[in-house]
Amino acid sequence: MTVINIVKKIKNEKAASMISSAILLPIFVMFIAFVIDIGGSMMLKEELYKACLISAEEVSKAIDLDKAQTLGLNNLNNTFEQVIDDYFQKNFKPADNVDLKNLDYEVIDDIENPKYVLVSGEAQYKTFFLKIIGIENINVHSQALGRLRRIK
Fold first, then answer.
1. Is the sign of the CA dihedral 63, 89, 101, 55 positive or negative?
2. Given a cut of 80, is residue 1 above it in pLDDT?
3. Eight-class DSSP state of 131
4. Inside any domain, residue 93
């Protein structure tokens, strides 16, 4: 091989690597950006679950003590809805790109003697990078169950 052939070969390899880089670099950057948005929504789901779980555990302690002592029933007291809201708000801090859409509860069995309280929440994560392909928001749902202990 002559020096001229070696120089031509090196130029061809540089050109090929530059073309490959020009094609692959934007794809790699977009992949990383999408991972950031998906990761942000997964972190939101975990935070939403934590807030639901703490609310469900705390509301399971909000029983009417008078009825519990006299009748042996686990009646929820009048403030149980406020307990759910208070503990949820203390443990869920929405960011600029997060909107809380719904906070709900369901008393499983009977309100007079419930077994469980299911707290569920829904939030919306506003994407930054996924907007490029038309995904403006990611809806995130989570729920947790609080068990009321039986009085014997």
1. negative
2. no
3. G
4. yes
